[in-house]
Amino acid sequence: MRRRNPQQLLHHNFSWTGILVNGGLHFFSSFIIGRATTSIVGTVLLLDKKLLR
To answer: Origin, by domain of life (predicted)?
Structure first.
C-alpha cells in the first residue's frame, strides 16, 4: 500500500469541499427561487380572489 503525499490528499479534500460548496449554493439558490416563486404565486392568487369577489 503506497502512501499518499500531502498535496494529493489536500487536493482530494479540496475537490470534495468544492463539490459540497457548489451543491450547497445550488440548493440554496433553488430554494430561494422556489420560495420567491411560491410567494409571488400566492400573492397573485390572493389578489385574484379579492378581484373576483
So the answer is: Eukaryota
